[in-house]
Specification:
Layout lengths: L1 E8 L7 E8 L16 E2 L17 E6 L13 E6 L12 H7 L13 E6 L7 E2 L6 H10 L5
Antiparallel strand pairs: 1-2, 1-6, 2-3, 4-5, 5-6, 6-7
């Protein structure tokens, strides 16, 4: 399997850190959804605690990070945030303490991000391939999570 550096925002409050995000050519879903346009399947579930391990079932979703509030143009190198949706015990995922800390006074329990979040960087606006995330990208991601609630 090929890997690219991605960042994990751990739910348990540990500091964000870079991890090798594995991608494979097996199990590519039909269609043209952004994470699969490069004809590879990312495996962020490796870094998501309490996620269900169900073969053939995708237990995570993603949110596109293409621009920050107030930007007129999209990023030339967009990001995708992968988040868990199906826990192994059926319980809700814990609130992501890292993102909660980012938000400070803006924190709202009802729209909180839950579980560990994995963010990957793509090399163009067509999502034709991944590239390594660096800590220089971190301020952009932090800004995004400060101003965006979790997807429904």
């Amino acid at each position: 399997m090929t890997t690219f550096d991605a960042i994990v925002l751990p739910a348990d409050g540990r500091p964000p850190h870079l991890v090798p995000l594995m991608i494979s050519v097996h199990g590519i879903p039909p269609g043209e959804a952004e994470p699969y346009r490069c004809r590879r399947v990312p495996h962020p579930e490796v870094y998501m605690e309490y996620i269900a391990k169900t073969p053939g079932l995708q237990t995570w979703r993603y949110d596109l990070i293409e621009a920050l509030d107030g930007m007129l143009n999209k990023f030339p190198f967009p990001y995708i945030a992968f988040y868990p949706i199906l826990s192994s015990d059926g319980m809700p995922f814990p609130v992501n303490k890292c993102i909660r800390e980012f938000k400070g006074e803006r924190y709202d329990q009802a729209s909180a991000w839950r579980g560990s979040i994995v963010i990957a960087k793509y090399k163009d606006i067509h999502y034709s391939g991944m590239m390594d995330f660096s800590m220089a990208d971190f301020p952009i991601i932090k800004n995004y999570f400060i101003t965006h609630p979790a997807p429904l």
